[in-house]
Design brief:
Helix content: 25-40%
Number of domains: 2
CATH class of the largest domain: Alpha Beta
CATH architecture of the largest domain: 3-Layer(aba) Sandwich
Order of helices and strands: EHHEHEHHEEEEHHEHEEHEHEEHHHE
Number of strands: 14
CATH topology of the largest domain: Rossmann fold
Structural class: alpha/beta
Radius of gyration: 19 Å
Strand content: 15-25%
Strand order of the largest sheet: 4-3-2-7-12-13-1-14
Length: 354
Amino acid sequence: MSTVWFTPATADTPEHCQKSMRTLLHAAGAATAFRRGDLVAIKVHVGETAKRPFLGRELAAVAAREAASAGAHPFFTDTCVLYKSRRDDAVNHVTLAHEHGYSIEEAGAPFIVADGLRGTDEELISVPACGPHPVAVAGMARRADFFVVLAHATGHLGTGFGGVMKSLGMGLSSRKGKLSMHSVSKPFIRKSTCIACGECAKWCPADAITVAAVASIDVAACTGCGECLAMCRVGAVGFDWKASSASLQERIADHALAVVSGRQDRFLHVSIALRVTKDCDCLDDPGPPLFPDIGILASQDPVAVDQATLDLIRDRTGRPLPAWSYPQIDPTHQLARGEAIGLGSRSYLLTTVA
């Protein structure tokens, strides 16, 4: 059984929220886990162009200060994305990160992209529990001395829940890894609903969509990234959620295990259940908060901390997360897969700290 530390917090009181983060990191043992001279990666999501995400520099800066005070050398990191975005190459990703405050001047550490200029700096990791084929993860994901994974807990259009495991598996995989995760998730167009506005084609990273009387998807070229689904505002894009989501979640768990394999004790996973939205921070508008803030959780076990986050959402709001966001998706496939392959345990002891 894994230990999960929890502190109640609300985003409406930023200074208290930062204090809560500091208290939680100390309770979870971060102060003694950081070693002098360590290169400490702090996994963040810097948001998209139109707005900063909730998980801004303030909470990330707390982790950076704690690492620096122990004599370690912290830096913020994330990987290139598949879809069209300022985060799809390292130059624009770093520029956007600085605009959103992830800089030495504002947050106390530099921002470095974990998978290189165009998402191809990777390591292929063989993990027997995940099958015969090696898993492609970001090169830096295996080279940093210590990782603090900061995950903003949200709903998600592909997995139902975006938490620590998604931040590990999807967020620290290379472009090849992301493509392999999405390869079974193929969208289709509801012709009776499509208005031929062209937004899906505009945002398709694979140029797999053409628009005439209605939109049409080239299934062979489609990567299954889900960008068309996110951008369509009339509901013309559909997915076979039952088939695609389960496979996507399982592949995320496999990639998460590849990232931490052999050095689980060099990771601390933090789940921030504040301003939980229907969609993840990859969207310019992930929507308003679904329910009142819950707090911040931390554990060395990524499965346990995600399970505890979902349990607290259910217990504190009276409804499970899918009832608030995507009721057609069961987000627990990733947890079951993670436990089955040895990534972590769904059984945990919740310890509240103030």
